[in-house]
Amino acid sequence: MLFNSFEFLIFFPIVFIAYWLLNNRLKQQNVLLLISSYVFYAWWDWRFLSLIIISSFIDFKAGSQIFKSETPQSKKMWLMVSLVANLGMLSVFKYYNFFAESFSDLMQVFGWQPNDLTLNIILPVGISFYTFQTLSYTIDIYRKEFEPTKDIISFFTYIAFFPQLVAGPIERASNLLPQIEKPRVFKKPWFNEGLIQILVGLFRKIVIADTIGAYVDLVYGDIELYNSTTILLATFLYAFQIYYDFSGYSDIAIGTAKLLGFKFHQNFNIPYFSKSLTEFWRKWHMSLSYWLRDYLYISLGGNRKGIVITYRNLLLTMLLGGLWHGSSWNFIIWGAIHGIVLSIEKFLKSKGYLDKVKSIGFLGYPITFCVVLVSWVFFRAQDLHSASLAISKIFQFNLGAPYIGDINVMASSIFVLAIGIIFDLYLFNKKINLEEFGSKFTGVKLAVIAAVIITLINLFYSSSNNFIYFQF
């Protein structure tokens, strides 16, 4: 079920009304949330509910056993049960075919033609997100940073909570689980904030991302047909398509949760207004960025074992972060670009070079954006050949008039993108968090804003456009 679908427009009001009619009955509310979350997920494919349920059972038990274990060996064994079970399922469904194909390609280099090793398997929606979410629970218990819950319904609800089940944000148990276990009360300011954030998210997705995505899909559908200018324009537009698509999803998820009395952490904070790639990753997909930092980078040693090991850890973290996004060499290269540039920034900072250029620090904005833009080529291209061709064409500087196509479509793309950027600039300059934006409006202003946004959404709506991050 998609947030931008007619089905969700029916589903959520029913859940919302039933949920608040059960006010002051916590267990019944949580049971309703759990059943609703399973219905939400099963709308895509009910068979894969078994994976979520199995993962939930394993980690509920593993978390309890880690906490009760009296020896380090026992704690480590139960942690390994959680890691192997969850990463094992993720590896089979998401990465088996990629590694099988890569192995076959390598063997062909040496003249051996192996049989087809791939399997006919489907990637379950959201498996990357809920796997990371449930692993954070057992790892935090192992590190003695969190105590396990005794309420299995609350835990299962934490894993499957529908607003963030299929594409995040990746919520930590330390934030979300205590909210599930304690009574919630309806708060009108939260309702206003959540409603505005949902509408902004739908606007970002339907009006901005889907509109400019039509041009991006056309150009990246056949790179060979277009010149440097056209590919650059498509890549520039893709940078905003993926931002408004995914930040839009996060807005809807955060706003939906707030309407139900839950507060998620912020997931995007206007990332393209960043002076460095390090700052970019503090603002882009923040729940993933902090997860990679806390559970991968720090586990590898972080910056505690010397500068060379720090560079290695940065590179490995971003390589694995790239692989998390997709089973393709494109994503690995995307991660490598970010890892290398992050390491360069850390080197320059350690030598004090960055302090010497503070007077021209504004140059960090375009430099960072250009680095991100180049990396997006690998993220968007259909395969490594298409990405290589796009990069080679861009740097041939075969400049000319860009392909425009339907002038009305292009004009609409520029218009809606301008609205999005102006709104982001307003938030940036005023230092306003979108999560609190709705609290600034009276009921009348809220109704007017909602009416305008809903009108625009209806004008641009297309039910055929999935969220980009569903594929990850």
TrEMBL record:
<dbReference type="GO" id="GO:0042121">
    <property type="term" value="P:alginic acid biosynthetic process"/>
</dbReference>
<dbReference type="GO" id="GO:0016746">
    <property type="term" value="F:acyltransferase activity"/>
</dbReference>
<feature type="transmembrane region" description="Helical">
    <location>
        <begin position="6"/>
        <end position="22"/>
    </location>
</feature>
<dbReference type="GO" id="GO:0005886">
    <property type="term" value="C:plasma membrane"/>
</dbReference>
<feature type="transmembrane region" description="Helical">
    <location>
        <begin position="117"/>
        <end position="132"/>
    </location>
</feature>
<feature type="transmembrane region" description="Helical">
    <location>
        <begin position="360"/>
        <end position="379"/>
    </location>
</feature>
<keyword id="KW-0808">Transferase</keyword>
<keyword id="KW-0472">Membrane</keyword>
<protein>
    <submittedName>
        <fullName>D-alanyl-lipoteichoic acid acyltransferase DltB (MBOAT superfamily)</fullName>
    </submittedName>
</protein>
<dbReference type="Pfam" id="PF03062">
    <property type="entry name" value="MBOAT"/>
</dbReference>
<dbReference type="InterPro" id="IPR024194">
    <property type="entry name" value="Ac/AlaTfrase_AlgI/DltB"/>
</dbReference>
<keyword id="KW-0012">Acyltransferase</keyword>
<dbReference type="InterPro" id="IPR004299">
    <property type="entry name" value="MBOAT_fam"/>
</dbReference>
<feature type="transmembrane region" description="Helical">
    <location>
        <begin position="152"/>
        <end position="170"/>
    </location>
</feature>
<feature type="transmembrane region" description="Helical">
    <location>
        <begin position="78"/>
        <end position="96"/>
    </location>
</feature>
<dbReference type="InterPro" id="IPR028362">
    <property type="entry name" value="AlgI"/>
</dbReference>
<feature type="transmembrane region" description="Helical">
    <location>
        <begin position="190"/>
        <end position="213"/>
    </location>
</feature>
<comment type="similarity">
    <text>Belongs to the membrane-bound acyltransferase family.</text>
</comment>
<keyword id="KW-1003">Cell membrane</keyword>
<keyword id="KW-0812">Transmembrane</keyword>
<feature type="transmembrane region" description="Helical">
    <location>
        <begin position="331"/>
        <end position="348"/>
    </location>
</feature>
<dbReference type="InterPro" id="IPR051085">
    <property type="entry name" value="MB_O-acyltransferase"/>
</dbReference>
<keyword id="KW-1133">Transmembrane helix</keyword>
<feature type="transmembrane region" description="Helical">
    <location>
        <begin position="225"/>
        <end position="244"/>
    </location>
</feature>
<feature type="transmembrane region" description="Helical">
    <location>
        <begin position="441"/>
        <end position="461"/>
    </location>
</feature>
<feature type="transmembrane region" description="Helical">
    <location>
        <begin position="407"/>
        <end position="429"/>
    </location>
</feature>
<feature type="transmembrane region" description="Helical">
    <location>
        <begin position="31"/>
        <end position="58"/>
    </location>
</feature>
